[in-house]
Design goal:
The complex is a heterodimer of chains A (about 500) and B (about 500).
Chain A: H1 9-15, E1 16-27, H2 66-78, E2 82-83, E3 90-93, E4 103-106, E5 113-121, E6 127-139, E7 143-147, E8 159-163, E9 170-176, H3 186-203, E10 216-226, E11 236-241, H4 244-263, E12 271-276, E13 281-287, E14 297-298, H5 309-317, H6 323-334, H7 338-346, H8 350-358, H9 363-381, H10 392-403, H11 409-420, H12 426-433, H13 441-454, H14 457-463, H15 470-480, H16 487-498
Parallel strand pairs in A: 11-12
Antiparallel strand pairs in A: 1-9, 1-10, 2-5, 3-4, 3-14, 5-6, 6-9, 7-8, 10-11, 12-13
Helix pairs in contact in A: 1-4, 3-4, 8-9, 8-10, 10-11, 11-12, 13-15, 15-16
Chain B: H1 9-17, H2 23-41, E1 44-47, H3 49-65, E2 77-80, H4 107-114, E3 119-123, H5 157-164, E4 170-175, H6 181-187, E5 190-193, E6 213-218, H7 221-231, H8 249-254, E7 262-266, H9 276-292, E8 295-299, H10 307-322, H11 343-354, H12 357-370, H13 376-399, E9 402-406, H14 422-426, H15 433-438, E10 442-449, E11 456-462, H16 468-486
Classes of the chains: A alpha+beta (about 500), B alpha/beta (about 500).
Chain lengths: ~500, ~500
């Protein structure tokens, strides 16, 4: 599909007011599914976590997972929402092969949480209050894999496979009210908002919050209106955008695309769209109108969820520190410069660094390990740095050995490589690879004397004040010690001998 | 007819527990009879002698090894074919499920197995329980043992004809607007719809979730009470099932005493529109109750006038959604149209061929009633009527302990008589529908033969929600009035099927 024509971003912002609305789906990490006892488990063999209920077999009935309700209430409370005293489920009726019952059990006019807000701080320090309309519970659909055909989409596929393991996985959908006034910051605000939601659900441990696995995914609604106009413009909804960068790019692209159409006197078609990160544009999905009729009605197979005041307060007490508050506190405690801290946030390493510091490393050394060597290794191995098989405790213990002079930075990197290669704890790697630094001064002095003997002019040069001449001897000694010596100590010993 | 097949379930249970007859002997007697006579009544869609006898043998072995596991230990039973069974195909009377063998047992079926009650087979019904005659079954209508040219009532006409024809001593039915009680009235048997939630619906192929309830179809009130005691109780698989036990129905039957009983007669269901013979039988029962010492009170339920209309919005709305899962993707019929089939047209072709006319009619009605712009006028208004009916009943039950109505406006009509007139068909349930809309228990008890056609009529007893015991108690009193007068229950007068 050809790329559509765009207006420059600056011109678009100059001419139009941007209104965005964000729907974030959060997959909860409950042990079992929303309405049955099947495992809520990512990555199982297809169609192994299924039962009559999540397969929608005739006669089966749903039963609500109390833990999922608890997590939903916790999310609602974290977003400063009111919690419904009578949260009813509803059926959203439409036919699709990944939807076992051909209706989704969701919530419609009585969501579990409603009327909240969250403050979002942009890079400039500017703070936006994003109004939350609702957070409601629903079930996920199965997963379709379309085989054959060029696009991997249902159109043109030879056949499609359905995996119902995901069918019935509990979701919380968080819907914002229209967000006005973000101007040129709308794309950044969208991404920062989604990051904030992701951080909240992660810190509360109600979701695995891995965007690349679809644990958190965003539908971005964008519309433009002429500056000063009262009536909202026609919106598009770009579905299932699943990285922060893509969210920012999607919103920016839609602003430019819509601006071009509107400026040329055209009309925006109300539709769902898809974002193609690789090609950097959205494409039209199916037309969607407000007349889309899902024939919602109260789910007769479930009694309403009626959380008691006591239960809500119990859940409120379990709420963890708000991620925005925590970030401020940590930056302050660690004394990181803004740029350093942004680096940590952007690479999503707050938890790892916090744990490494807690295990005894200094904040700066922890930061250097995670955003430096470990990030580099992860990049080489093409995995997320968080998924490297090394724990914050192991990183901290290696750093302690550096601090006490038992390891050099270079040897420490070998120890890390050993841990990542599955050779055991740092101490075991040091032992088995024989990486312990040589601190026996007798051995060092013997090596120095040996090196000096083969380079007799060196001593002379040093005594003449040409200290750099020591470099050649240090190199020879390090080679002799197979790298396992502290170069600065060797240097000091050479200088001492030259006295 | 042997002595065994004409006995009540309670009597058979007594024979088994006292080891005067084995479950195998009794099950064999019913299998012999149904294999011979089912072609006449088309009560059963499926039976399997070997399987039933294996279950009977296990029941006998258990008894030989120890004691009875339930009061109905070893007594065989017929199950309506809209309950899932892992050892028998389950069709719900529809072509769209032909040949489907469920992967799980309905909770009620599991309870029957745990009570060591052999299952004789699966009984016929209108497709997805939509109908009151079984004429909408995809597998042909069942026949009424009182007159094989007449309907046995519906949707549970397979179960009612099996009971009246002595092809089973007990049967399970499901009642959404009268599908247990109306067939019971048509065949002179007893049919009870417990309080909504008293019996788990898990494994019942849903028609309208907020109205459906499973219950017993039997020869006597005591048999029905015994069966409800077996199948009732909370089920974690059904969120709408009641958390607490309603107590023993059998104990309530045993305490039957008319003294101090206040009987309400619903003004709106005791005047016009009833066949004269049916009305006469009903009036006669009320007189007898008064003579026995009950206080008779007329109660006013003005909203009953809108019950049928509200019912035919709520039911199709829920059914249209419940039946969406029949799409060929995971189970049942799959019709692949010619050309290059897409998932949409495979679904459409399957539903076009797999569903019968009444099912399609109700799916269309329900889809319409839930559509945006019509929801408030139809589904919304119907829910309001439902509330008004509940209020009418709550008021009536402050005046009376139970309410009595004729179960049905007529006796059994001829097969074919109403099949092309949906409105006439829908009015059969005029007296039974309010109980489903309000979630209260109702039972139909034989009420004599109408003078003009000599066919059975039924009297319905309604009790407040969760007072199923009260309902059984009064049902037992009413039943006794007839047994006292005639020396036997009405079902003893059913013609000999073998001679028909």
């Amino acid at each position: 599909m050809a790329k559509e024509q765009l207006m420059s971003y600056e011109d678009a912002i100059e001419r139009f007011e941007v209104v965005i609305g964000l729907e974030v789906h959060v997959e909860l990490n409950t042990v079992s599914k929303m309405f049955c006892g099947c495992a809520n488990n990512f990555g199982s063999e297809p169609n192994t976590n299924v039962c009559p209920t999540c397969l929608g077999l005739p006669g089966s009935l749903p039963a609500v997972n109390r833990k999922a309700v608890e997590s939903s209430i916790a999310i609602g409370l974290a977003l400063d929402c009111q919690i419904a005293s009578n949260g009813r489920f509803a059926r959203k009726n439409y036919f699709y092969p990944d939807l076992a019952k051909n209706f989704q059990t969701s919530q419609f006019d009585e969501p579990i949480a409603f009327e909240g807000e969250i403050s979002i701080e942009l890079e400039t320090g500017e703070v936006f209050m994003v109004p939350i309309e609702r957070a409601h519970m629903e079930e996920d659909a199965g997963k379709l894999t379309h085989v054959g055909g060029a696009t991997g989409r249902i159109q043109g596929a030879e056949y499609s496979l359905v995996d119902y393991n995901r069918a019935g996985v509990p979701l919380v959908e968080i819907v914002t009210k229209p967000i006005y006034g973000a101007l040129d910051k709308a794309p950044e605000l969208a991404a920062t908002y989604v990051r904030a939601i992701r951080d909240i659900v992660k810190s509360m441990n109600v979701s695995d919050a891995k965007m690349e696995r679809g644990n958190v995914r965003c539908d971005a609604n964008v519309s433009l209106r002429e500056k000063g106009a009262e009536k909202l413009g026609t919106r598009t909804e770009t579905k299932n955008v699943n990285s922060l960068k893509s969210i920012e790019n999607t919103v920016r692209y839609e602003i430019q695309r819509q601006a071009f159409i509107l400026a040329a006197g055209g009309k925006i078609i109300q539709e769902t769209r898809h974002w193609h990160e690789d090609r950097g544009h959205t494409s039209a999905g199916r037309p969607k109108s407000d007349a889309d009729d899902y024939r919602y009605f109260p789910e007769p197979d479930l009694v309403p969820v009626q959380p008691s005041e006591e239960w809500i307060e119990e859940i409120r007490l379990t709420l963890t520190e708000k991620p925005s508050v925590r970030r401020k506190r940590l930056q302050n405690d660690w004394g990181f410069a803004d740029l350093e801290f942004r680096d940590v946030l952007n690479s999503d390493l707050l938890d790892e660094i916090e744990a490494t510091v807690a295990a005894g490393a200094s904040p700066q050394s922890a930061r250097k390990w995670w955003t430096g060597e470990l990030a580099r290794l992860a990049n080489v191995q093409e995995v997320a740095v968080q998924d490297l098989p090394i724990t914050p405790e192991q990183v901290a213990s290696i750093q302690k050995l550096i601090d006490s002079g038992e390891l050099t930075d270079r040897i420490a990197r070998d120890v890390v490589a050993g841990v990542l290669a599955g050779e055991g704890e740092p101490a075991e790697v040091i032992e088995s690879r024989g990486l312990k630094i040589v601190t026996d001064e007798g051995a060092l002095i013997a090596a120095i004397d040996k090196a000096l003997a083969s380079q007799p002019d060196v001593m002379e040069k040093i005594r003449d004040g040409k200290l750099q001449a020591a470099g050649a001897v240090i190199g020879a000694v390090m080679q002799e010690m197979r790298g396992q010596a502290d170069a600065s100590r060797v240097r000091a010993l050479i200088l001492e001998r030259a006295k | 007819m042997t002595e065994i097949t004409s006995s009540s379930a309670a009597a058979l249970a007594g024979l088994i527990s006292s080891k005067k007859a084995s479950s195998v002997e009794i099950t064999t007697a019913f299998l012999d009879r149904l294999e011979k006579l089912n072609p006449k009544t088309n009560s059963y869609l499926y039976f399997n002698r070997e399987n039933s006898l294996a279950q009977a043998k296990r029941a006998d072995q258990q008894l030989a090894d120890g004691t009875a596991v339930s009061p109905l230990h070893g007594v065989p039973i017929a199950v309506k074919d809209n309950l899932t069974t892992t050892d028998a195909p389950t069709t719900a009377g529809s072509k769209i499920l032909e040949g489907w063998v469920p992967q799980y047992d309905a909770t009620v079926v599991r309870k029957l197995r745990e009570a060591s009650m052999p299952i004789l087979g699966k009984t016929n019904l209108d497709e997805f329980a939509m109908g009151s005659s079984t004429e909408f079954s995809a597998y042909g209508p069942s026949k009424n043992p009182w007159d094989l040219s007449r309907i046995p009532g519906g949707s549970g006409g397979g179960s009612s004809s099996a009971i009246a024809g002595h092809l089973a001593p007990l049967a399970i039915g499901s009642d959404t607007g009268g599908s247990i009680r109306f067939p019971a009235a048509m065949t002179g048997s007893v049919g009870a719809k417990p309080t909504y939630g008293a019996v788990s619906r898990y494994g019942l192929i849903a028609l309208a979730s907020s109205l459906d309830q499973i219950g017993p179809v039997t020869n006597s009130v005591m048999d029905a009470a015994m069966l409800q005691d077996v199948i009732g109780g909370h089920d974690p698989h059904d969120s709408t099932s009641l958390p607490n036990s309603l107590g023993s129905m059998v104990q309530s039957v045993k305490k039957a005493d008319v003294k101090g009983l206040k009987v309400g007669v619903v003004k709106q269901l005791s005047s016009d529109g009833f066949q004269p013979g049916v009305k006469t039988c009903f009036d006669d029962t009320i007189e007898k109750l008064a003579a026995a010492g009950a206080e008779i009170i007329e109660v006013d339920c003005p909203s009953f006038e809108y019950a049928v209309a509200a019912y035919y919005l709520i039911l199709p709305a829920e059914a249209s959604s419940n039946l969406a899962k029949f799409d060929s993707v995971r189970f049942g019929l799959r019709v692949t149209p010619d050309g290059n089939p897409t998932i949409e047209n495979v679904m459409a072709a399957t539903r076009e061929q797999g569903f019968g006319p009444e099912v399609k009619r109700r799916i269309i009605l329900g889809t319409y009633a839930l559509s945006s712009g019509y929801y408030d006028a139809y589904y919304g208004s119907a829910q309001k009527v439902r509330t008004l009916i509940q209020q009418d009943l709550a008021r009536a039950f402050t005046q009376a302990d139970v309410l009595l109505t004729p179960t049905a406006p007529t006796t059994a009509f001829k097969i074919g008589e109403k099949v092309n007139d949906p409105l006439a068909m829908y009015l059969n349930d005029i007296a039974t529908i309010p109980a489903n809309l309000a979630g209260i228990p109702g039972i139909s008890v034989p009420n004599g033969l109408a003078s003009e056609d000599g066919l059975p009529s039924g009297v319905q007893i309604l009790a407040p929600a969760m007072q199923d015991g009260q309902m059984y108690r009064v049902a037992s009193i009413v039943e006794k009035l007839y047994v006292d007068q005639w020396g036997a229950s009405l079902i003893a007068r059913v013609p000999d099927l073998e001679a028909l």
